Structures are given as C-alpha cells and as structure tokens.
Records
---
Amino acid sequence: MAEQSPTVESLLEPKEPRWVITILALVAIALLPWVLWLTVTLPSRHVSEHWDAAWVGFDVAEILAFALTAYAAWRRAPWLQGAASAAGTLLLSDAWFDILLSTGDEKVWLAVGQAVLSEIPLAILCFWIAWDTARFWGHWQRLLDRMPSRAPSREAA
C-alpha cells in the first residue's frame, strides 16, 4: 500500500500546543522592558572577580556542544538538531562577546578575524546540520563509506 502524501491542512496545523506559542510570544514581549531597563542602568565598564572562570566555563560548554554534535552525528541520534543548534548558538555568542569585550584596536581586530574565519563559518555549518539533517545524513554516510573498515574482514581469518 502506497504511503499517502500529507494534506495541506495537516501541514498547516501546528504540532505544538497553542499554549507553547503563547508563552514564547509573551516571554519575547516581556523581555523588551527588561532590555530597556538594562540599557539605562548597566554601567559601560565592569570588573569581575571571576572573568577567567566565566570564559573557561563558556569554552568548556562549546567543547561539550561540539563533542555532543559529533557524537550525535556518528550515532545518528535523534537529538542531533538540538546539539548542532546549541553549538552554533554558542559560537555566535562567543564571537559577539569576544568582539564587544575586546580592549584596544589590535585585540578587537583579532576578535573580528577569529569570528569571520572560524566562529561564524562553524556556526553556519552547525545551523546547516540542524536545518537540513536528512541531507547531512546523506553526506555523512558517503564520508563513512569512503573510510576504510575498522573491522577485520572474514576472508583474512
């Protein structure tokens, strides 16, 4: 029996419950006054006791996101899209904060170069994986097929 194509109506019906959409929209609206308040009240300069720990922790989160994305791709895990999205988001956040928090022209340009040459392209790759997982699996399978087999062949025994 042939599989039927989905109807237009079924494609237009949201899979998420309506209350999820409402909550997300309300949070987005509620954040607007918060951002305005931060804009007015936050100092432009701040010294932190744990600056090093914050950045090391952030970079460890990036390492974990990359490792989880690689593992999910290798295992064809259903949560690959989430891991890849998290990795891409962390990379863009890293680029943003590296540039904005750099002091001196040389450090700013170094941060811009790092963002343009590594962080943004890697984020685009991660978002592509998240967005087009089915096609990614096809590319991944072709790469795996080209790799030599690690299992000893039965003919050699």
---
Amino acid sequence: MVHLGGNVMRVVLLVGALSLCGCAASGPSFVEESERMIPVPEGLARVVFFRTKDSALYIARNARITLDGEKIGETAYGGFHYHDVSQGRHRLQADIWDVPGGCELILDAASGQTYYFQVDPRDESFLAFAAGNLVASMVTDGELFSLGLELGASAAESYGRVCGGAFKLYPVDPATANWKLLELNLSG
C-alpha cells in the first residue's frame, strides 16, 4: 500500500484544482473593450484595475477589489476591469478572502478623470505562507496544524501594514497603464 504524505497530497489536489479553474482573464481585449467604453459621465471618475502576467504567484486566484468596503470586482491574472465612481474620497482595497490582510489606499477622485491601479502579488505574503508550511512539515504531518501555521505566518507578516495580504495595489501613470493594458483581457 502506498502512503501519500501531506505535502504530496496537497500538490496533487493543487494540480487538480488548477486544471479545473480558469486561471486567466478571458474576456475581450483592452483594445476591444475600450472601443465600447463611453466617456466618463459628468460628475463621475473612472477607476481601472489591472493585473499583468509578470508574476505567476497566485496565478489561479483573483484579487478581490473593494470600494468603500463593497466588492466591485475581481482582478484575474492577465486581466483588467473598470468602474465609474462618484467624485470625492474613496477607500480602495485588494485582498483574497482566505489570506490574512489586505492592501488599502485612499483615492481622491475628481470628476471626469481616469485613475489606473495595478494589482500585483506580494512576494512577502507568499514567502511567509511558505515558511509556515516548511516549519509545519518539520514539526508534524497534521494538515490542520500545517494550515494554522501557514495562515499564522501570513497574518504575522501582514499585521499592522496598510498594504499587507496577498496582493498590493498601487497607482500607475496613464501612459504606463495604457501600454500594459494592451496585453490584457477583461476579467470575468
């Protein structure tokens, strides 16, 4: 009888899950979508979120984006999405529901303006999770204990940070954003 250790079983489950999920954005290209976009309506600002394919970390996970505490979309690997928001001050956040922490920033939106925000995986969060896994594998073979150490390490790494969690969110100038957006598709 063959015994699969906890880490081997985890890899088998991960490969299976990746084969079942749509990992990358698959909607219209940015060029196609921009042809359909209406100009920013009077009194509103447009906010564009995008995630390049520069990092394979969290490739199968979408970054959840919230505006003033309300979910407005998810940014997929190689994807973008946009939203029109009222002018004024807004709190933006990028996170994943099951990873401790999130990256938060404030946007002072002016009427008629478009703002671009890149969403990237945070190496620090991934490394903390991996370190928790390494320690757990040396101490025990228990899956719940291992998961607890992994999440605990991630939480400790993100504790007290304005930009913690699995993803970082930061503003990008329009010229750079438009150049990067050319290779992306609308997130589902």
